[in-house]
Amino acid sequence: MTVHLILPAAGVGQRFAAGIPKQLVRIQDKTLLEWTLTAWQAIPVSGLKVLAIAADDAVSRALAAPFGDVEVIIGGPERADTVLAALHHLSLRADPEDWVMVHDIARPCLLAEDVERLLQRCQQTQVGGILARPLTDTIKQVDSQARVSTVDRSTLWAAQTPQCFRLAELMSALQQAAELGLAITDEASAIEAMGWPLNIVSGSERNIKLTHPADAALVDYFLKPHLTASNYRVLEPMIRIGHGYDVHRFDVDAPPCTIRLGGVEVPSEHPLLAHSDGDVVLHALCDALLGALALGDIGEHFPDSSATWRGADSRALLRQVYQLVLEQGYRLVNADITIAAQTPHLMAYKKAMQGCIADDLDTLIGTINVKATTTEKLGFIGRKEGIAVDAVCLVERPT
Predict the structure, then answer these.
(1) Which of 140, 205, 352, 354 is the most exposed place for a label (fewest CB within 10 A)?
(2) What distance in Å separates the CA atoms of residue 335 and residue 242, rounded to the nearest whole number?
(3) Of 39, 59, 44, whose CA–CA distance to 104 is shortest?
(4) What's 250's DSSP letter?
(5) Count of C-beta atoms within a 10 Å radius of residue 373
(6) Domain 3-141+151-226 homologous superfamily, CATH
(7) What residues contact 188, with CB distance under 8 A and at least 6 apart?
(8) What are the φ/ψ torsions at residue 281 (nearest 5 degrees)?
(9) Domain range summary for the chain, segments of one domain joined by +
(10) Handedness of CA 173, 174, 177, 179 (dihedral sign)
(11) Which of 208, 178, 172 is closest to 78 using CA atoms?
(12) 94-150 pLDDT, tens per residue?
C-alpha cells in the first residue's frame, strides 16, 4: 500500500511560550523540526512527504532543504486547515485510496516499530487508526460549580500521532467538519464526528509531544541515546575508562645512558630499544586515552613502519592523542600509571613525571598518579631485560 506523510508545522506553539515557532526550538544540537525529519528517515514511507509551514517561516523551509524528499507547502491558521491544505496538495498526484499518516512535528521521539504496527493494523482491517496511550492516572472532572468527580479511566486513551487514514476519507471528514463548524483538535476527531470507525493502537510512552517547557527535559532524555557522529564520537555514556599496556626491552649490549620515562630523563644501565624515544610510560598512557574513546592504539596512529615517527618525542605524541580526546567532546578526569622495573630506581623521579604529564594534558598534577614497583627479580623485568607499564585513565564528557 502507498503511504504518504504529512507534517503540520504552521502553528506558533503558544503553550510552549518560546517566542519562536515550536519546531525551531533547539534540543541538544538540532531543532525539533530536524529531529522529527531525521526520525522519519528511518521509517519507510513509500509515498510523498509533505511539510506544511507558515507563509513567513523561511527558517523551517531552509532546515527542511537538506532532507531532499520533503516537499514544503504553506499551511493554514489552524491545524485542520493545514492538514487539509496538505491533503489537497497530495490529491493532485496520489490515489484517493492511498493511506496518509499525519504526525506532530513536536513528537521527535517516534519509534519505527510503533508506525509499523499501526500500518499493519490499518492494512489488516482496512480501517484507519491512531497511536494512543491508555491513561494510568486517576482522572478527576470538575464541573462549572467546582464539584469534583472521578472518571472511569479504563476506557480513556491519550491520543498520539501518527494518525493514519485513507486520503479521500480524511479529506472528506475535515471538509465536512469545517462546514459544520466543529472544533477539530486532531484528525481522528474529524473521523469520529462523521461516525466512522477507527483503530486504537497502543504507542510507546516515549512518543511524547513537546507542549510545555517542562517537556523539553524528557524529550532531551529520550533523544540522547541517538546522538552519534563521525570519527567514532560517542556522546553516551558521560564517563569512559581506558587501559593501556606497553613493554620496551633494554639494549643490554649498550653502555649506561639516560632514558626518558614519563617525559623525564632518568639514568639507566642501558638504553631502551624503540622506534621513537622509547618512553614506555607515555606510550601506555596514549593507549589508555585512545582506548577510552575506542580510537584504536598507538601503533595505528604512529606506526613504527613510518620514518616520520623515528626518534619522535613521546610528549608530542601524547599531546596529539589528547587532542583527539578533546575533539570527541571529552576531557581527562584522572590517570593512574604503574611502572614495573627492576632497574632503574624511580622513586626520586615520580613527581617529575606527574608534572610533565599534567602539563601535556593541561590538567592539575593531582589528577596524575605514577607508581613504581619491581617484580622481586621474577620474569623478564626481574632479569633486567625490560620495563612494562600499565596505565588506566578516566575521561568524562562535560555536561
Answers:
(1) 140
(2) 9
(3) 39
(4) B
(5) 12
(6) Spore Coat Polysaccharide Biosynthesis Protein SpsA; Chain A (3.90.550.10)
(7) 130, 159, 163, 198
(8) -65, -50
(9) 3-141+151-226, 239-396
(10) negative
(11) 178
(12) 999 999 999 999 999 999 999 999 999 999 999 999 999 998 889 899 999 899 999
* Cβ burial 228-248 (10 Å sphere, 16+ → b, else e): eeeeebebeeeebebebbbbb
pLDDT in tens, 240-277: 999 999 999 999 999 999 999 999 999 999 999 888 88
Alpha-carbon distances of 35 from 30, 171, 206, 225, rounded to whole Å: 6, 28, 14, 13
Q: Where are the alpha helices (DSSP H) in the chain?
A: 32-41, 58-64, 79-91, 112-125, 167-180, 187-193, 215-223, 280-292, 298-301, 314-327, 350-360, 379-382
Tell me which residue has cell 620514518. 307
Mapped to the 3 state alphabet, what secondary structure does 179-217 carry? HHCCCCCCHHHHHHHCCCCCEEEECCCCCCCCCCCCHHH
What are the pLDDT digits (tens) for 67-103?
Answer: 989 999 999 999 999 999 999 999 999 999 999 999 9
Superfamily of domain 239-396: 2-C-methyl-D-erythritol 2,4-cyclodiphosphate synthase (3.30.1330.50)
Composition of the chain by helix, strand, coil, percent to 5: 35, 25, 40
What is the spatial distance between Cα 78 and Cα 11, in angstroms, rounded to a whole number? Answer: 7
The CA distance from 180 to 199, in Å, is 24
Q: Are strands 49-53 and 3-9 parallel, antiparallel or unpaired?
A: parallel
H or E, element range at 266? strand 264-268
Q: Which helix (H) or strand (E) holds 260?
A: strand 257-261
